[in-house]
Amino acid sequence: MELNLPKYVSDSLITIENAGFEAFCVGGAVRDLIMGLIPSDYDIATNAEPEIIMSIFPKTVPTGIRHGTVTVVTPHGNIEVTTYRTEGGYSNHRAPDNVHFVKSINDDLKRRDFTVNAICFNLKSGIFDPENGLDDIKSNTLRCIGNPNERFFDDALRIMRLFRFSAQLGFNIENDSLESAIRLSYLLESISVERIFVELKKAITSKQPDALSPLLFSGALEFLGLNATKIPNVINQLISDFSLRFSVLCHLFNTEAVSVLKNLKADNQTIDSVKIYTKLLNLPTITTKSELKRSLKFCSIEHIKGLFNYYNVLGTDISFLTKTLTEIVENKEPYLINHLAITGNDLIKSGFSGPEIGETLNRLLEIVIENPEQNHKENLLKLI
Predict the structure, then answer these.
(1) Dist. CA 199–CA 222, nearest whole Å
(2) Rg (Cα) of the chain, in Å, rounded?
(3) Neighbours of 103 (CB within 10 A)
(4) Which of 79, 162, 328, 374 has the smallest number of CB atoms closer than 10 Å to its CB?
(5) What do you get for the CA distance between the two ends of the chain, in Å?
C-alpha cells in the first residue's frame, strides 16, 4: 500500500535515510491517510538519535529532547521526529520516568497506545504493521497494544484518548480495552486537568460525542463536577461547537457548566461563551421579536444562532425566529444602548446626572425595542 505523503514529509524521510538511518512516518497521520482522512500533523520515528537529527536538518527545535523528540521546522509544516525508544516506569501515571533509545522499530511500536496508532510507513518498504492495526481499521475497532491494564496504568491520559478516538473515528472499543479503561478511570484524577479538557473538547465536538457515555456513566469525571451520566442524542445533532454542546449537556443534567470549566482550567473565552449559553438556556423559549432583541443585549448573533440550532433539534419551528433575526440585522433595528439616537451627553445637556443617566437610557432602549420607529433624537428628547 502506498501513501500520498506531502513532499515536505517525504523529503524529511529521505534526508534521514540518506544520512544512513531508518525513518518511518508513524502514528495518527498514517492511520488517517489509510482511512482517507487529512492528517493535522506528521510524526517520524527513526533510529537516529536527536543530536544527529539536529545536525542533518537546517532548522530544528529540541521540543522533547529528553524523550528523544526533535521538531524539524520546514517552510511547509513542522514534523516531530522521535528516536525509537522503550520507556521506564510511570510513577505519575503520565510521563515515563526514563526512556531508552533502541534500534528496532518493533520495540518502539510496542510502547504505543492503540493498534491503529502503531502502523508505520517507509518510502521503500511501504506499510509496516506488526500490531495488526490495519485489521482493526477495517473492523472499526480500537484496541490497546498488549495488556490494557499496563497501557492505562502507565499513562492514564490514554483513557481519555481512547474515548476521544472512538468519538472522532466512530470506532467501537474492544471489550478488554473498554473494561480496563473504566476499571482504571480513577487514575484520571492524577492527570493534568488541562490535558483532560483538551481531550474532552475534541470528543464533544466530534461526529460521535456519545462515545463518551460509558466513561460518564462510570462517574469517572465527577471529581471535576461533571455529573452527566451519558451524552444524550440531542448533543450529537447540534452543530460542532463546544460551548453550545457543553452548555446544553450541563443544562440537561442541572450541572454548573462554568464551575466544571473552571475545574478544568479552561480558557476565559470558552468560559465566557458558556456563561452566555447558560443564561440563554435558562430563559423561556424566545417567541417574539422583542424577546429576541433583549437576548441580543447580552450575547452575540452567533450565540443566538446556536440557540436556534438547539430549538430546531428539539423540534421547534425556527423559521419565524430566523426571519426575525435577519430583519433586525438588515434593518439595523436597535437593541443596544449605543444603538440609540441619543447619548449620555445629550442627557447631561438636558439636566440629567449620575445614575439617572444610565437608568434613563435603559428606559429609552426598552421603548425603542418595542417601537424601533421611535429611535430618532427629537422623539427621544421629547420622551425624556
Answers:
(1) 16
(2) 27
(3) 11
(4) 374
(5) 78
Cell output for 101 = 533509545
The C-alpha cell at 227 is 455529573
Residue 346 burial (10 A CB sphere; 0-12, 13-18, 19+): middle
Q: If 0-12 CB within 10 Å is exposed, 13-18 middle and 19+ buried, where does residue 232 land?
A: middle
CB 7 within 8 A of CB 13: no
The torsion of the CA quartet 167, 168, 171, 176, rounded to 10 degrees, works out to -60
pLDDT tens, residue by residue, 195-229: 999 999 999 999 999 999 999 999 999 999 999 99
pTM for the structure as a whole: 0.90
Instruction: Retrieve residue 110's grid coordinates.
Output: 510496542
